[in-house]
Structure formats: C-alpha cells, structure tokens
Design a protein that fits this description.
two-stranded antiparallel ribbon; 6% strand
C-alpha cells in the first residue's frame, strides 16, 4: 500500500512540474502583432494620442505595436 502511494505521489508531482514548465514556455512566446495603430474610447471614437499609463482606456493593442 505504501509503495502504491509513493508512485502516485511521484506521478502527481511529475504532472504538476510538466504543466508548470509547459505553461512558462508558452508564456515566453511572442504574441503576434495585429498591426492596430489607433486607440478608441467607449463610444468608438479615435483617441489621439493613445492614453498614457494610468489614464482611462490605456492598455489597448495599439500601445504594444511592434515595428
């Protein structure tokens, strides 16, 4: 019985480590750029320039444009 529990613990630990490492590797990949260059407000109007950090509507895709 004790040996069965030991193997279950080893298998469980291995699965947890695999998913943690796999998740970290997936998070490290670059997200493809969408090409979005305009920021918008809640009504759909274009905001120019894009809002600064801490301002309303900051963090839109256009803030992270990779050129």
């Amino acid at each position: 019985m004790a040996m069965k529990m030991k193997w279950r613990g080893i298998i469980f630990s291995s699965v947890v480590v695999f998913f943690v490492l796999f998740g970290c590797l997936q998070a490290a990949k670059m997200v493809p750029d969408t090409g979005q260059v305009k920021c918008y407000d809640a009504g759909g109007a274009v905001i120019s320039p894009c809002p600064a950090p801490g301002a309303a509507f900051h963090g839109q895709d256009a803030h992270y444009n990779v050129s």
